[in-house]
Design a protein that fits this description.
By secondary structure, the protein is of the alpha+beta class. The protein is built from 7 helices and 4 strands; from the N terminus they run βαβαββααααα. Strands 2-1-3-4 form a 4-stranded mixed beta sheet, covered by helices on one side. The two termini are 24 Å apart. Keywords: Transferase. One of its GO terms (molecular function) is transferase activity. Pfam families: GST_C (PF00043), GST_N_2 (PF13409).
């Protein structure tokens, strides 16, 4: 199978990290969003939404949306709880990541780390800080109670949230304000087969 993505994107890195932890074999197809790689006719045939990552199975079936791909690839693994309520909690955190976390932390990171906070994006950048800190506080509260987001062991919830959280400083977020998040980051980085995010 093939995964199309940008290694600097947290949404794409999630899949690389998961595949490494679960020892999943795949072919990585590197795309450059800024170069228009996701707007080509050939890519839009695979995903009309023009977004990465996408998974293309050997039989040609295509799956998009990072957390949907995570759940598909991790099916049957210990990263998805057997208990229905805990499994729903994983989904709760994944929805939280896409709606309350990524729109602030990932966008702030893009504006600062890749664009250098240009004048025409400064107001937007500053507006992302409060939302990002709110999301980090929610995570900190949970991690004061449990070592991982859904209890005592790592799940897909942690992989989903780790991707952009561990590089949040690149968006201007000082993680020293969140000691439990920093401990959680170290726990994930200590996992067997942990794969760091690639740098260009």
């Amino acid at each position: 199978m093939k995964i199309y993505g940008d290694s600097q994107s947290g949404n794409c890195y999630k899949l690389q990290l998961l595949a490494s932890i679960l020892k999943i074999t795949y072919e990585w197809i590197e795309l450059d969003i800024k170069n228009g790689d996701t707007k080509t006719e050939s890519f839009l045939k695979l995903n009309p939404n023009g977004k990465i990552p996408i998974l293309v199975l050997d039989d040609g079936r295509v799956l998009s949306e990072s957390n949907a791909i995570l759940n598909f690839l991790a099916e049957g693994s210990d990263l998805i709880p057997n208990d229905p309520f805990e499994r729903a909690k994983v989904l709760q955190w994944q929805f939280f990541e896409q709606y309350s976390h990524e729109p602030y932390i990932a966008v702030a990171r893009f504006i600062q780390h890749y664009l250098g906070i240009p004048a025409d994006r400064k107001v937007e950048y500053e507006s992302k800080q409060s939302g990002g800190h709110k999301a980090l506080r929610v995570m900190e509260i949970q991690l004061e109670k449990t070592p991982y987001l859904v209890g005592d062991s790592m799940t897909l919830a942690d992989i989903s949230l780790f991707a952009y959280t561990h590089v949040a400083h690149e968006g201007g977020f000082d993680l020293s304000e969140y000691p439990k998040i920093k401990e959680w980051i170290r726990r994930i980085q200590d996992q067997k087969h942990y794969l760091p995010m690639k740098s260009r």
